[in-house]
Amino acid sequence: MSGPIQHGGGLAAAAAQYGGRIEDWLDLSTGINPCPPHLPEIPMRAWHRLPDQEREMAAREAARIYYGSGDRLPLPVPGTQSVIQLLPRLVHSGGRVAVLTPTYGEYARAFMAAGLAVDPIGDLSEIGPEHRLVVVVNPNNPDGRLFGRAELVALADELDRRGSLLVVDEAFGDMDPNHSLAAEPNSNLIIFRSFGKFFGLAGLRLGFVIADDSIAGRFADWLGPWAVSGPALVLAEQLLASDTSVIRDRIHERSRALGRVLSEGGLNVRGGTELFRLVEEPFADALHAHLCSQHILTRKFDYRPDWLRLGLASDEAGDGRLLAALRSFPR
Question: What DSSP state is assigned to residue 226?
Answer without folding.
Answer: T
